[in-house]
Amino acid sequence: MSEPPILVLDGFSVRLPMGADRPHALDDVSLSIASNEILCIVGESGSGKSMMANAIMRLLPNEVAIERGRMMFDGRDLCAADAAEMREVRGAGIAMIFQEPMTALNPLRTVGDQIAEMFGIHTDLSRAEIDARVLALLEDVRIPNPKLTAKAYPHELSGGQRQRAMIAMALALDPRLLIADEPTTALDVTTQAQILKLIRDLQQRKKTAVLFITHDFGVVAEIADREIVMQHGRIVEQGTADAVLSHPSHPYTRQLIAAVPPLKAPPPRPLSSENILTVADVSKTYRTGGFLGRGARVTAAVKNATLNLPKGATLGIVGESGSGKSTLARCIVRLIDPDAGAILLRDKDWAQMKRDDVRRETRHIQMVFQDPFASLNPRRKAAELVAQGPIVHGTPRAKAIAEARELFALVGLDPSAGDRFPHEFSGGQRQRIGLARALALKPDVLIADEPVSALDVSVQAQVLRLLGELRERLGLSIVFITHDLRVAAQVCDLVAVMKEGEIVEHGLVADVFGRPQHPYTKALIAAVPGGEFTAQHEAAVS
Amino acid sequence: MDAVKRYFRSPAAVIGLVLLLVVIAMAVGAGHLYPRDPLALAGRPLLWPFTNPRFPLGTDNSGRDIAAQIFYGARISLLIGGVATAIAVAIGTLIGAFAGYYGGWIDNVLMRITEAFQTLPNFVLLLVLVAVFGSTLTTVTIAIGVVSWPAPARLTRAEFLSLRNREFVQAGRTLGMKDLQLILGEILPNALPPVIVYASVVMALSILLESALAFLRLSDPNVASWGNLIGLGRDVLRVQWYVSAIPGIAILVTVLAVSLVGQGLNDALNPRLKSR
Fold first, then answer.
1. Interface-testing mutation among B167, B269, B272, with chain A (most A C-beta atoms within 10 A)
2. Does the N terminus or the C terminus of chain A have fewer Cβ atoms within 10 A?
3. Integer Cα distance of A254 and A238 in angstroms
4. Is the pLDDT of residue A48 over 80?
5. In whole angstroms, how large is the CA radius of gyration of chain B?
């Protein structure tokens, strides 16, 4: 490392308030970042990585305090800086980009206006000069049509464009250090690949130091020069990206890397020739606005989707956000009424069924939801949540609760957990409760809508393993919706790729991912971050 | 349990609760302390407070014991406040829940009705109801409840609108629950905390509405209520101002207590809002 360090943390500790799950958010953290390097901080949720970003910006919540240590930036200790000094440093010296660009931008002001504000606060440039700079910045981050974009409001831009605008804003004053807190987590893979490349390019051109916080080892492989692995607020391992990724020394790092699912599909399983679920030509169109049928905005969420699910198989539906995969899933369980087509399950056409019949038949097809926090009613105990379904379908309450406790053991939870409320469980445990709830009705088909995308990699691996075991044991057939191709490759026998409401390609996982035919599938596979790392990782796993 | 702890951490909320308990104690103890009819003539009219130990708060213009009326008035105020609030919140949550859950034309119809009620000043509506149905304690209480439901209805509707598309509600639907089960069992318990908090506002307003009616001598004259006493005191306001002032203070204290308790409940039930 020839460049001098820009930011040095030395024995840095941040104390959490009493009653938190551990005494320190950050415990004795020492690190340094040189200019012109990208340092990735990797860790699972709760490892303190975001707290680190906020601590460097001195934007900690009131009840959390820096306990000891030094934080040297540009020759001064930021721990000792007063509010006025920090205001100078923020934006001009250290800039930050966030995970969710929609909430980080002010919805009532144009993008150009918000970038211009950076210059307004920190410089004495004239209005014309500022406008010119804003345009130049927007060109730098390669936003199509910068002049129009500057006049656009945040909601008029796509997620990727908003993140580009955020980056433009962060880089406005040529900061020496850029902190990026999971900047691509909320984006689709293809957009993520573009943003990662953009950050890389800008960093090299401007010689900025970048502190990049992420949970995704693929992203690390893509972008990092050096990386730091954090667990429970401590640094467990650091080194150059190559060294840590290919020869991890700490067991925690090894465990994390092993939990990253490879993109290569395991050998195919024999599939039943009998289809349990057939979806034929299902369409769903949304109409918004308009008057008496005229001038309405028409969005085709699902167009003529046709799928077959063999008995005992897992069918993956992959696609980016807005591709209609969740709408299709909700059509199948009739949370949404499809406009056209047929959904055949147990010789009945679900698409044509009346509401009352759907209510009766619904125990044959159950759903697991994405968000482990929103999908459980916070005011019911876990056992009650699981027992609800059987109770609705006529099982006596005491028997249903007893069965629920048995199910807890099946999904790997302690049966005594039934008396606790959802908020007393971790994300992975909640997802197990959601799974138990769906299984309580002994369904033939399980629809899983992004069941692991809100979970950390290691927890994700456990839940996927559980899903695989249950499939074998209970003879379940599963429709698995995900945006993550790696996860799809691991759990699915068949896969369908959706784009703008249409299924563009489907077939066996090994065929679709191994020899993609459609250009969109190829683009998706190319965009999975950390291509080389993935290849090595696959070699190591197989 | 956390909510209880948070509640007692706020001094204002504790003071409110103590005041409210005092008012409740007055209502409960009225019969013991003053076994006689509070509206019976007790002594010389218009005795100033603290002049005669038999009448610590003096007597009103017909010679009735003000202290006794204050104690019995606490009963009436709490009764009207409680029952009218229960009526208003019941109607409001029912209408709000259906409007918010079903949306579409049901929402449109119910909300237009709510707006019709809201555009009329509710005191005017109350006057009309009392004029038509008479001014017994029962009709007055029901009338106050009937004019106070639009705000809880709107609040409940807003909560339902945000909750009905949550995944746990969808999960309930995929389990085969009926609409009523979803509304009452799944969504309502999650929608209630802000409505409970707002109920304290409705209660304070109900007490004030009854006093205002009584001040216009349109409330039930056969019960000892604070409003009636203020109404009587109107005639001697310039000289014997205490006849109106004492029940006025009682109303002030009660409404303050209810508001403080409501604020405390709000902070206890929505802890995240408080720390902002």
1. B167
2. C
3. 13
4. yes
5. 22
What residue in A sits closest to B163 (Cα-Cα)?
A374
DSSP reduced 3-state for A455: coil
Give the burial class of A508: count Cβ atoms within 10 A of its Cβ; 0-12 exposed, 13-18 middle, 19 or more buried: middle
Q: How far apart are CA A182 and CA A41, in angstroms?
A: 10
Q: How far, in whole angstroms, is CA A388 from its chain's centroid?
A: 30
pLDDT score at A1: 47
* A 424-483 residues with CB < 8 A to B: 434, 437, 441
Distance from CA of B57 to the nearest CA of A (A): 49
Counting as low any pLDDT under 70, the low residues of chain B are 1, 271-276
b/e map A308-338, b = 16+ CB within 10 Å: bbbbbbbbbbbbbebbbbbbbbbbbbbbbeb
Cβ(A342)–Cβ(A353) under 8 Å?
no
Contact B168 A376 (CB under 8 A): yes
**So what's the pLDDT on residue A290?**
60
Give the chain B residue whose CA is nearest to the CA of A389: B175
Cβ neighbours of residue A473 under 8 Å, at least 6 residues apart?
Answer: none
Q: Residue B176: closest CA among chain A residues belongs to which residue? A: A359
| Closest CA of chain B from A448, distance in Å | 12
Nearest to A498 by CA among A478, A480, A526, A521: A521
Confirm or reject contact between A337 and chain B (CB < 8 A): no
Exposed (0-12), middle (13-18) or buried (19+): which is A518, by Cβ within 10 Å?
A: middle
Among B173, B176, B186, the residue with its CB nearest the CB of A377 is: B186
A377 to B168: CB separation less than 8 angstroms, yes or no? yes
Three-class SS state of A346 = coil
Inter-chain residue contact B181 with A392, CB threshold 8 Å: yes
Cα separation, A337 vs A282, in Å, equals 10
Burial of A350 (0-12, 13-18, 19+ CB in 10 A): buried
Return the amino acid letter for B210: E
Residues of B in contact with A371 (CB under 8 A): 167
Q: How far is CA A518 from CA A306, A495, A504, B93, in A?
A: 17, 13, 7, 53
Contacts of B173 in chain A (CB under 8 A): 335
pLDDT tens column, A212-244: 999 888 888 888 999 999 998 899 998 888 888
R_g of chain A, CA atoms, integer Å: 25
